[in-house]
Amino acid sequence: MQYRLIVEYDGTDFHGWQLQSEKRTVQAALEDALARLLGQPVRVAAAGRTDAGVHAAGQVVCFHSQRVVALDTLRRALNALTPTDLAIRAADTVPDAFDPRRTARGRRYVYRIWNRAEPSPFWRRYTWHVPWPLDAEAMQRAAAQLVGEFDFSSFRAAGCDATHPMRRVFRSDLARTGDQLVYEIEATAFLRHMVRNIVGTLVEIGSGRRSEDLGALLAARDRNLAAATAPAHGLCLAEVRY
After folding, report:
1. I need a surface site. Which of 94, 117, 120, 125 has the fewest CB within 10 A?
2. Is 97 a residue whose pLDDT tops 90?
3. To 5 degrees, how large is the angle CA 228–CA 24–CA 27?
4. Nearest to 82 by CA among 24, 34, 14
């Protein structure tokens, strides 16, 4: 039987999602809890491999088990066995053919910027502190240009293992909420560091250091022309859509 979990985690103290030798990762923590619960080794698959420091509110994870466990028991038991920076929001069963990564039709990420002179001790783990003024309207005008299907090579990190740089973006919006700028982007899939590279570029636009014309940057297909990568801790995988 294949089980599906909706997982939340604070990525601050994890070295990303994927298993790494002698490093604390989300996958390792979850597989350890499942092995203790089920009494056998378990391998899990996720909708996306978040980087070190990136958070998740809606990561989707699947695993197979010959042991049948009541869904409420599975959720409660795992929450008792996992560390406090990892939690299971929901559990259900899905057909064996369901693949959390390949079956997904869209993924939504949220990036938060703390935009006031003073830092926030409450939001420091979940926002990028930019202490100078940012023009949110200019950033939104630029962000809206990313909706559609484009070659995102200009926002693709070195070492990205995607077979091609074409991505279809359904939503790309930025709005100010109090002291925060909240950027939301939904796409079929993402290239490595794509969202963080976009955010770094939007901050340069909001700072008045760069033109709002992202069309020209997309057409250039040159990562060297975009801005530096925004910090990981402002990013959260909010939702995976099927």
Report:
1. 117
2. yes
3. 90
4. 34
Of 94, 114, 131, the residue at which a domain comes to its end is 94
85 annotated active-site: no
Measured at the CA of 200, the angle between CA 213 and CA 217, to 5 degrees, comes to 30
- Give the end of a domain, one of 67, 94, 121: 94
The pLDDT tens digits for 203-221 are: 999 999 999 999 999 999 9
Whether the predicted pLDDT of 7 surpasses 90: yes
Helix (H) or strand (E) holding 216: helix 214-220
Report how many helices (DSSP H) and strands (DSSP E) the chain contains, helices first: 5, 10
Query: Which of 32, 51, 179, 213 is the catalytic position?
Result: 51
Q: Both 28 and 88 in a single domain?
A: yes
CB 190 within 8 A of CB 223: no
Quote the pLDDT of residue 159.
84
